[in-house]
Automatic annotation (TrEMBL):
<feature type="binding site" description="axial binding residue">
    <location>
        <position position="390"/>
    </location>
    <ligand>
        <name>heme</name>
    </ligand>
</feature>
<dbReference type="GO" id="GO:0006805">
    <property type="term" value="P:xenobiotic metabolic process"/>
</dbReference>
<keyword id="KW-0349">Heme</keyword>
<dbReference type="GO" id="GO:0008395">
    <property type="term" value="F:steroid hydroxylase activity"/>
</dbReference>
<dbReference type="Pfam" id="PF00067">
    <property type="entry name" value="p450"/>
</dbReference>
<protein>
    <recommendedName>
        <fullName>Cytochrome P450</fullName>
    </recommendedName>
</protein>
<keyword id="KW-0560">Oxidoreductase</keyword>
<dbReference type="GO" id="GO:0005506">
    <property type="term" value="F:iron ion binding"/>
</dbReference>
<comment type="similarity">
    <text>Belongs to the cytochrome P450 family.</text>
</comment>
<keyword id="KW-1133">Transmembrane helix</keyword>
<dbReference type="GO" id="GO:0006082">
    <property type="term" value="P:organic acid metabolic process"/>
</dbReference>
<dbReference type="InterPro" id="IPR002401">
    <property type="entry name" value="Cyt_P450_E_grp-I"/>
</dbReference>
<keyword id="KW-0503">Monooxygenase</keyword>
<feature type="transmembrane region" description="Helical">
    <location>
        <begin position="154"/>
        <end position="176"/>
    </location>
</feature>
<keyword id="KW-0472">Membrane</keyword>
<dbReference type="InterPro" id="IPR036396">
    <property type="entry name" value="Cyt_P450_sf"/>
</dbReference>
<dbReference type="GO" id="GO:0016712">
    <property type="term" value="F:oxidoreductase activity, acting on paired donors, with incorporation or reduction of molecular oxygen, reduced flavin or flavoprotein as one donor, and incorporation of one atom of oxygen"/>
</dbReference>
Length: 470
């Protein structure tokens, strides 16, 4: 089977034990990924490690049920463009964490710093408030160790990707060692989240839906009352399913957003003239008396285009979200066997000279048309496309915009003396993460003092969530 002869942007590999198709044509990716037959997940090392639990690496009817349920939960808490009232609650959650971040960065007094821990904590607290109604302090040692394990896990999985296609390699000493590390990371991560789940159960109330975890606890309660407990989650252990759902949503919601914020800082260091253009636009539209808000976005084309260009250049998830065929599929006149892995090569799309003029250049202006409006081409799919597109896209876009604009509105970015510009190549794993770097943030003056709140307001919903059972 060689589709590449007729279709130049599709590559097929027969690995003896497994078929692999790599797609770099966005139209073909869209056509395939909108079909149910392509909505499976590869049966690889990662899939086996999770034992069929969660949402990211499940398939079939349980995946459909879980995605539908999680989507309902997230919509209820404002993660959709169509829920304006809850959008403001979501924005307030994010801006509460922006306030903490800005205060922390101001306390550094322009010293050379590594932003990683600050970004991890800030982004984590947003998703954790939605998932579990908890937040962590910047100095929490237990949470800091957990983040090290999670970041290490993303890199480790990238390092054992060959096991997905050559399973016999798992018996070699190097891979045995890496698999052991991954399993240890999984155990520590699950133990951390299990403690939070156990605490949540003790304070659970059927009359008050605080977060996504409460939605799941309510679902279990309904199943028990209706005598359907054994059928819930298709017979899978309830606790294991809840825990993996939380881990899936947390890691997906934290890692890519945090990494994108790093790339934004790095590209602004490389292109200070772009950073100045963004700041000038923010000053003109927002003014120097407040921080940007989400309602400002339509009036900030330079800012939005800059974010989009960084998303293109950084290709945070370079291999996209892998799919697999659920059955033998007829596609483009060829038969693709069941369980064939389909990899969307997002990095290639983002750097294709047939799609982008001078793709090697950093040009935010490519996203602005002659009328000065932001235009996103159909082939630009940083958050995926089709049935398995990113559930948290709206949250991620809002977070990236609010954190980025608040930082640039508050600080000038400077490369510390004696430091080289950060590398733009990145470290390959599940995500393409930047190498560590240092930055100086020099406070800009406001016309009046902006005092971020010392404590987060309570924006947790108290109404019972009207979602159906499985």
């Amino acid at each position: 089977m060689d589709l590449s002869k007729k279709y130049g942007k599709i590559f097929t590999v027969n690995l003896g034990l497994k078929n692999l198709i790599i797609l770099s044509d966005p139209k073909m990716i869209k056509e395939a990924f909108t079909k149910e037959e392509f909505s499976g997940k590869p049966s690889n090392e990662f899939y086996k490690l999770l034992g069929g639990y969660g949402i990211i690496n499940t398939q079939g009817s349980i995946w459909k049920e879980q995605r539908r349920f999680v989507h309902s939960c997230l919509r209820y808490f404002g993660m959709t463009i169509f829920n304006k009232k809850n959008n403001h609650n979501l924005e307030n959650r994010i801006m509460g964490e922006v306030a903490y971040l800005l205060n922390s960065l101001k306390s550094q007094k322009g010293r050379a710093i590594d932003l990683n821990h600050s970004f991890v904590i800030s982004v984590s607290n947003v998703i954790c408030s939605l998932l579990m109604s908890v937040r962590f302090s910047f100095n929490d040692p237990i949470f800091r160790r957990l983040m090290v394990k999670i970041e290490e896990g993303f890199i480790l999985f990238g390092g054992i990707v060959f096991l997905n296609y050559f399973p016999f390699l798992r018996h070699f000493p190097y891979f045995l060692k890496e698999i052991k590390k991954i399993d240890e990371n999984k155990v520590q991560t699950h133990n951390f989240f299990q403690k939070i789940i156990d605490d949540h159960r003790r304070t659970f109330s059927e009359t008050k839906t605080r977060d996504v975890l409460d939605c799941y606890l309510m679902e279990i309660k309904r199943a028990e009352l209706s005598g359907q407990s054994e059928n819930l989650f298709q017979g899978k252990d309830h606790n294991s399913q809840i825990r993996q759902i939380i881990v899936d949503l947390y890691t997906a919601g934290m890692e890519t957003t945090k990494t994108t914020l790093h790339w934004l800082m790095i590209y602004m260091l490389h292109y200070p003239e772009v950073a100045k253009s963004v700041q000038a636009e923010l000053d003109a539209v927002v003014g120097r008396k407040r921080l940007p808000n989400f309602d400002d976005l339509p009036y900030l084309p330079i800012t939005e285009a800059t974010i989009l260009e960084v998303l293109r250049k950084s290709s945070v998830v370079p291999l996209g979200n892998s799919h697999a065929t659920m059955v033998d599929v007829q596609f483009k006149g060829y038969t693709i066997p069941k369980n064939t892995e389909i990899v969307p090569l997002i990095y290639a799309i983002n750097n294709d000279p047939e799609l982008w003029e001078s793709p090697e250049k950093f040009l935010p202006s490519r996203f602005i048309n002659a009328e000065g409006r932001v235009v996103k081409p159909d082939f630009f799919i940083p958050f995926g496309i089709g049935r398995r597109n990113c559930l948290g896209e709206f949250l991620a876009r809002m977070e990236i915009y609010l954190f980025f604009t608040s930082i640039l509105h508050t600080f000038d970015l400077k490369l510390p003396e004696g430091h080289s510009l950060p590398d733009l190549d990145g470290i390959f794993g599940i995500t393409l993460t930047p190498s560590s770097y240092k930055i100086q943030l020099l406070e800009r003056s406001f016309e009046c003092e902006i005092k971020p709140s010392e404590s987060l307001p309570d924006f947790l919903c108290t109404k019972r969530m009207p979602v159906g059972s499985h």
